[in-house]
TrEMBL record:
Domain of life: Bacteria
Keyword list, A-Z: DNA-binding, Transcription, Transcription regulation
InterPro entries: AsnC-type_HTH_dom (IPR000485), GntR_C (IPR011711), TF_FadR/GntR_C (IPR008920), Tscrpt_reg_HTH_GntR (IPR000524), WH-like_DNA-bd_sf (IPR036388), WH_DNA-bd_sf (IPR036390)
CDD domains: WHTH_GntR
MF term (GO), any: DNA-binding transcription factor activity
Species for this entry: Tistlia consotensis USBA 355
Keyword Ubl conjugation: no
Protein name: DNA-binding transcriptional regulator, GntR family
Domain HTH gntR-type, residue spans: 13-80
Amino acid sequence: MTDLAALKPIEDRTRRGQIAQRLRQLIVSGDLAPGSRLTEAELAGRLGVSRAPLREAIRELVERGLLVSEPYKGLFVRSVTRADLEELYSLRTALEQFAFRQAWPKRTPEALAELRRRNARLDAAIAAGDQPDRAIDLEMELHSWCYELSGHRLLLESWQRIRPNLQFYFVLHQRAHGRAGPLREAHDRYVALACGEDLEAMLAHLESHMRQGLARTLSFI
């Protein structure tokens, strides 16, 4: 159910970034439910913003995959089917396993230090607990590491193409687990394996972790 009463006026009426952040927070929290139809007029009125920066913010969230704009139908909060999730999980698992195979021999001390820095930033966001949308961004950056390190241009482009879909998946995933952000222990384990010496253990972890995540998320929708 869409709860537009949860929308409060934004102090700075001209900042697209602040509008986009507020809308993202409401989508992540579930106040704007999947499949809900939104109108510019109602959003502008509830948020107390003008149409121009609102349109820019909407365009950003459409590009990120959180909103969907359908010609002659309108603007909607993204929704997914079971088939959508199953396809996304299977593709992401295959891509990430391939990325680690390509990246494994390229793991220099500097590269591993960068992975740990990304995990530290994610840990800090999780500990803060007040910006689940920020944690999602940092979780995406953590997982981007192996694709960037792989040196495989087409693989990196494939990852970048599915990232907007993953944005919304992470929203559902967090709600399915009843928490407002990623699970710290899961990513600490991910990083420990990525910094270790057992590639097969890393690949097996990806398979089992994503399979469990899919099952939990499917039970939620």
